[in-house]
Amino acid sequence: MNLVPIETVIEGAISGMVVSFPTDTVPALAARPDKADLIFQAKDRSQDKPLILMGATAESLWPYVCGSDEELQLWQGVAKEYWPGSLTLVLPAAEKVPRVMNPVNPTTIGLRIPNCDIAREIMAKTGPLATTSANLSGQPPLERMTEINAQFPDVLVLSLSQSQDMMLASGVPSTVAKWNGIAGWEILRQGAVKL
Predict the structure, then answer these.
(1) Strand, helix or coil for residue 75
(2) How far apart are CA 148 and CA 140, in angstroms?
(3) What is the SS3 assignment for 17-41?
(4) pLDDT value, residue 162
(5) What's the half-sphere exposure (Cβ side, CA atoms, 13 Å) at 122?
(6) N or C: which terminal CB in the chain sees fewer CB atoms within 10 Å?
(7) Cβ(177)–Cβ(195) under 8 Å?
(8) Once rounded to an integer, what is the mean pLDDT over residues 59-78?
(9) Which H or E element spans position 88?
């Protein structure tokens, strides 16, 4: 498949295909949450590595988590400070989260709003998407849309101008912080954001 315009990426994602677009960290492979298994297949990814739910707005993501009113307020405060940005919050998953997002431990879900206009523009139309870095499992993330197109011929890859393709991603993965109730936050991966 060739590199495609943004409208085709949006339509493809809505119809249940795997798509790829840039984010503020590394380009993503993305699909509807209920089609997350397609990403595991495409990447040859092990089932114990959950996907991240990315959205255009924090409001679009809160229905996917469950916590007390106090917890929700606290999480929303952290989100307000660091989103959009390279911070992934791992929170208790609501019933709404399809099991295919996190097959081994469906009790949690990682959430993120990327600081990337193109990514948010796409997800404003598709709704939140299951995402992960665009690479085969165990290999470094691909940083150019042309490389992703070559490695994943069945994925709808967003076409960018060469200059856009060069400057978008920082290449630094997001910080992943998991909520552990009374114990507070546990940093699972230190990335760009210091919590």
Answers:
(1) helix
(2) 12
(3) CCEEECCCCCCEEEECHHHHHHHHH
(4) 60
(5) 33
(6) N
(7) yes
(8) 97
(9) strand 87-92
